[in-house]
């Protein structure tokens, strides 16, 4: 008994020493598409840096250097010159506030529209042509989604994912008995479970589209007709997958029978992940990543990422010396 407690104390201490903090900026609202970014970032860093436990810290002041990830968050009043961007996108192509940006480090952007906006409107010397919303990585970095069968498949009802700006009364003119609705205001595991169980998805939420396609569920972009959401972010994502002529469909009856244009998201995986892991020292130097116990040196790489990913089992536990895994799942402290 004493020996077991000593082991647990040692592992807890090891966990504290082998941890680091990451400060992140995202739109902190109950919107599953924005909230998923911090978990994807943590997972990629966990796999790519092997032995470290990551604590995600939400930016509380614009002067705090942060990493920007999932979302249309490259906009006025958000960026400062010490920030790092990984897969974020612009929302408007006429945001003059981007002209003041000169030393932000761009690792990757969501798509060509974001690349164009930053290249032409900012003072940045380099914007890499590495495209892809990090949310597409979901089934790759969480392999449990590849193994699990749908828990309650509802093959008769098409899922409609509604953006937070959607006015639901617009659907009153349709017979909605063939549809199931879920709002993007739900937490991301709930929305993903609904997507996995659907035969098809119609969405005016961008991340409803992105994650449906990532999980290989047929998805059609629909227009609410009453939303003020700009179309640019949708074009940005579709163009990142070499689809340039996709437009939203307003009539549900037409959307229901329309076949989506397929794409290959997997070819975007490694460039997105490598853009982050190969620049880990930039995040350390800018104090976006820091340790609690002295100077921090990280050894992160694609090789480590792929090795650890290969060792993930069907429950999603990745066996790469994560002390919290051993404390909670291996050590018996009866």
Task: Give a verbal description of the structure.
With about 325 residues, the chain is an alpha/beta fold. The protein folds into two domains: about 20-130 and about 265-320, no CATH class; about 140-255, 3-Layer(aba) Sandwich (Rossmann fold). Helices cover about 35% and strands about 15% of the residues. The protein contains 13 helices and ten strands. Strands 1, 2, 3, 4, 5 and 10 form a six-stranded mixed beta sheet that branches. Strands 7-6-8-9 form a four-stranded parallel beta sheet. α1 (about 1-15) runs antiparallel to α13 (about 325-330) and α2 (about 30-50) packs across α12 (about 300-310). The chain starts with a helix and ends in a 5-residue tail after the last helix.
Architecture blueprint of SSEs:
Layout: H1 2-17, E1 19-25, H2 32-49, E2 53-58, E3 67-68, E4 84-88, E5 105-109, H3 112-121, H4 138-141, H5 144-147, E6 158-162, E7 179-183, H6 188-196, E8 201-203, H7 206-214, E9 219-221, H8 232-240, H9 252-257, H10 266-277, H11 280-285, E10 289-290, H12 302-310, H13 323-329
Parallel strand pairs: 1-2, 1-3, 3-4, 4-5, 6-7, 6-8, 8-9
Antiparallel strand pairs: 1-10
